[in-house]
Design goal:
With about 140 residues, the protein is an alpha+beta fold. The chain is built from 2 helices and 8 strands, in the order ββαβαβββββ. Helix 1 packs parallel to helix 2. Belongs to the archease family.
């Protein structure tokens, strides 16, 4: 696990730090799955349909929030979770391209309402880092 949970009085949060921004966004998706449903990608060995996801935004912070809110949107509207395998992140212009698989949530209720800007930190140096608070 390349991310860690943050203590928060009412919501939930995580921090991810990695060698690349792409790895940080992969870790953020894993942390989101854990906080939203108590699951890890290892809970879905080899299952799911191949899928791709593309997002762009005005800046890196919006890209991070949009990334997790898109995962939540897919879960709420299609009852699937997108498990990214490969992610490419650019900050000039801010965009993300991800390939992976979608797996059914099988009726699981997610505890997350949204990714938020409160407490949000995204940096690229000295090592890529993301801090995110999720509204429960």
């Amino acid at each position: 696990m390349a991310w860690r949970l943050l203590e928060h009085t009412a919501d939930a949060g995580f921090e991810a730090e990695a060698d690349t921004l792409a790895e940080v966004f992969l870790d953020a998706a894993e942390a989101f799955l854990f906080l939203a449903a108590g699951l890890t990608p290892g809970d879905f060995p080899g299952s799911g349909e191949k899928s791709e996801l593309f997002l762009s935004s005005p800046d890196g912070e919006e890209l991070a929030v949009s990334w997790l809110n898109e995962l939540l949107f897919l879960a709420e509207t299609r009852s699937v979770f997108f498990l990214p395998v490969k992610v490419t992140v650019s900050l000039s212009p801010p965009a993300i391209a991800a390939s992976g698989r979608t797996v059914p949530l099988n009726g699981r209720v997610l505890s997350v309402k949204a990714a938020t800007y409160g407490g949000l930190v995204l940096r690229t140096s000295p090592r890529p880092f993301l801090r995110m608070i999720l509204d429960l």
